[in-house]
Write a structure and sequence with these properties.
single chain, alpha+beta, Alpha-Beta Plaits, 2 helices, globular
């Protein structure tokens, strides 16, 4: 029926405190990430909340472990979306 998309959205509630640990997990699973977009409020102040949107390789065996490791980082929470 067309292309399948696997999206993992990651909300960072304590962005400055958990960014280094989240980056380690993203690097570990880099081969299953097709696209990465990170956003946070900036301007007059730098927000401590952020959002990372990842397009993953559909059906990759590592996705469950990847999500579990991200969710284990204090201040990070993820949601898997299959389209």
């Amino acid at each position: 029926m067309g292309t399948n998309y696997t999206i993992l959205a990651v909300k960072l509630c304590k962005r400055r405190a958990c960014a280094e640990e989240v980056q380690k997990v993203l690097t570990k699973y880099g081969c299953v990430i097709r696209m990465r977009l990170g956003v946070h409020e900036a301007g007059d102040f730098c927000s401590d909340e952020g959002l990372v949107i990842l397009q993953l390789v559909p059906g990759a065996e590592e996705i469950g472990a990847f999500k579990k490791e991200l969710d284990a980082v204090e201040g990070a929470e993820s949601r898997l979306i299959e389209l």
